[in-house]
TrEMBL record:
Annotated HTH tetR-type domain residues: 13-73
Name of this protein: TetR family transcriptional regulator
MF-aspect GO terms: DNA-binding transcription factor activity; transcription cis-regulatory region binding
Keywords: DNA-binding, Transcription, Transcription regulation
Source organism: Saccharothrix variisporea
DNA-binding segment(s): 36-55
Pfam families: TetR_C_14, TetR_N
Keyword Transcription regulation: yes
Organism domain of life: Bacteria
Taxonomic lineage of the native organism: Bacteria, Bacillati, Actinomycetota, Actinomycetes, Pseudonocardiales
PROSITE patterns membership: HTH_TETR_1, HTH_TETR_2
InterPro entries: DNA-bd_HTH_TetR-type_CS, Homeodomain-like_sf, HTH-type_TetR-like_transc_reg, HTH_TetR, MftR_C
Amino acid sequence: MTRPPGLRERKKLATRTALADAALRLCLERGVDGVTVEQVAHEAGVSLRTFFNYFSSKEEAVVAGDVATAEAFVRAFGERPADEPVLEALRRALVDILPEHVDRAKLEQLRLLRRTPTLLPAQLAAFHAQERALAGVVGERVGLDPGVDLYPMMFAATVMASVRVVVTQWLDTGDQRPLADLVNAMVDQLDAGFRR
C-alpha cells in the first residue's frame, strides 16, 4: 500500500500544479508564442528560478496536465491486484482515473493549443515518457523485461495511442456517453490482440 504524500510533497505538487495551470491559462488567452516563462512564474506567484525547478520550458508546463493524468493512470494500474489479468487491470485503472482527471471543456481548449508547432516536442517527450513508465509497470506485472521483450512496450504504446484516440473521438463527436463507456469499448477491442 502506498503511503500518503507528506507536507513537502503536497507543497511541491501544489506549486507544480499552479505553474501548469498558469501556463495553460495564459497560453489560451495569448497564444503560446505570446507568453513568456517570466509571465507564467509571475502569474503563479513564484520566482523564475522556482519555475525552472519544475519545468524546462513553458511548453513543458502546458502539457503537464496530460502528464499528471498519465502518471495517475500508471500508478493506479500498478496498484491493481497482481493476480488480475492485465487487460482487466487496464480497464479498471482507466475507468477509475480518466473520468476524475478529464474535463471536456479544458480538453477542448487544450486541443486548440496543440495545433501550435512549438508544443509538439513537449508533447512527444511526454508521450514517450508515459509509454516507458507504463511499459515498466506492465513488464513487472507479466514478468517480462521491457528492454528485451516486445510485449510491454507494444502494449504501452498501443494503450496510450488508443486512449488518445478515444478521448479525441469523444471530443470531436460531442459524444455525451460517459468516458468510462468508451474506455470499456476500447479495452474490449484491444482484448483480442492483448489477451494474456
